[in-house]
Design goal:
Elements lengths: L1 E6 L2 H16 L3 E8 L3 H7 L5 E5 L5 H22 L3 E4 L6 H7 L3 E4 L14 E7 L8 E7 L18 H6 L7 E6 L15 H11 L4 E6 L19 H7 L2 E4 L2 H10 L3 E4 L9 H8 L4 E4 L2 H11 L5 H15 L3 H10 L3 H8 L3 H4 L3
Parallel strand pairs: 1-2, 1-4, 2-3, 4-5, 5-6, 6-7, 8-9, 8-10, 10-11, 11-12
Length: 362
């Protein structure tokens, strides 16, 4: 089978890299298309993955976003006519719409962002998988809710073993207390009008936390001069090793918050997305598992971070919470590999018995 995988974000690389590798091991032909956004291409290079660039992410101005969409959609169609895929695998099927209609090939997507936007109303996928907490209605022939998060495609214990050498690169001894901060760029189309920490509050957060251990900052945008000395300098494929060993994560990154949770690192998320209409995976991680805290107000997030970093045995407490979560969730890469490897028979199997999800991911 020929499979075309389309990646729009660094997180998508992690989301599908294990599935791509396993499908190739099963003798399927996989082609990867990617847009240039943040560290997406560097990640692909770090995992020795072949890919074709089909566009780039720029300003979050609607006019620029629309032009980028046209470029990306055209390049997907042009490549697909040559490659002739049997299946498309992606996170967002919107740029694949013209190709889907013209080539009549199924689009399989994994989605976890319940973003209320008029743009998503136009997106149509043939098969959509979402976390079990997902409640938004989706246009598709098949929508199946899975007991997982996208981060468990690469951070499930069967996939990820933390490497202590990443700490040595930072000059940190194992067991030494430190905090990891992440500040997003907010330049994706769904980030229009959204925000996290401003400059002054970033400085305040760093100053509060450095009284209780080292502080390292990861940022999509260049850090201001006052925060440069805190910049995290590790290979991009080692960030999860650092995150696993951190005593606390604080940031406005949606993905790294969930990554922290599934790794058992206490996490505080501050974002204007939080609140009454927040995405349900964050609600579940806070209310059901107690692994993260969600705030809209940066001052409240800073206060909670300052409180948590001073608590003894914090990591041990979160490790127990993580165990509870992992008992309830599956390895997403194992499931996607099985589903695509056995497609379209896998569709009928799932319609007959959804308990097969647990059998094929053990």
């Amino acid at each position: 089978m020929k499979i075309l995988v389309v990646l729009f974000h660094p997180a998508h690389v992690h989301n599908f890299r294990n599935t791509i590798k396993e499908l190739e091991n099963r003798k399927h032909v996989v082609k990867v298309l990617a847009i240039k956004k943040d560290i997406t291409l560097k990640l692909l290079d770090s995992y020795d993955m072949e890919y074709q660039v089909i566009g780039q992410s720029g300003s979050n101005q609607l006019y620029t976003l629309f032009l980028n969409y046209l470029t990306i959609a055209y390049n997907i169609l042009k490549t697909s006519k040559i490659f002739k895929p049997d299946i498309f695998l992606t996170r967002s099927g919107l740029p694949l719409l013209p190709t889907r209609y013209l080539l009549r090939r199924p689009v399989i997507a994994f989605k976890d962002s319940e973003i209320r936007s008029f743009i998503t109303k136009f997106e149509i996928n043939d098969v959509v998988f979402t976390p079990s907490s997902f409640h938004q209605k989706i246009k598709s022939d098949m929508h199946l809710k899975l007991p997982t998060y996208k981060e468990l495609a690469y951070l499930h214990p069967d996939r990820f073993i933390p490497d202590e050498l990443a700490l040595r690169d930072l000059g940190i001894e194992l067991g030494e207390k430190f905090s990891l901060l992440r500040f997003s760029g907010y330049d994706a189309w769904h980030d229009v009008g959204q925000h996290g920490f401003d400059y002054n509050l970033k400085v305040k957060l760093v100053k509060n936390l450095e009284h209780h251990g080292e502080v390292y900052v990861s940022s999509e945008k260049e850090l201001p001069k006052k925060l440069k000395k805190y910049q995290l300098n590790v290979p991009i494929d080692k960030i999860h090793d650092v995150l696993y060993h951190a005593n606390l994560f604080v940031g406005d990154s949606q993905t790294m918050t969930t990554e922290s949770a599934v790794l058992g690192t206490p996490a505080i998320r501050c974002s204007s997305f939080a609140g009454e209409n927040d995405m349900t995976n964050f609600v579940e991680l806070e209310n059901k598992y107690g692994l993260i805290y969600n705030y809209r107000e940066p001052e409240k997030a800073i206060k909670k971070a300052t409180e948590l970093i001073q608590r003894p045995d914090l990591k041990e407490e979160w490790a127990k919470k993580r165990e509870k979560l992992l008992k309830d969730k599956i390895d997403l890469s194992a499931f996607l590999t099985w589903f695509i490897d056995n497609y379209p028979e896998s569709v009928d199997q799932l319609k007959e018995d959804q308990d097969i999800i647990w059998d094929v991911t053990k």
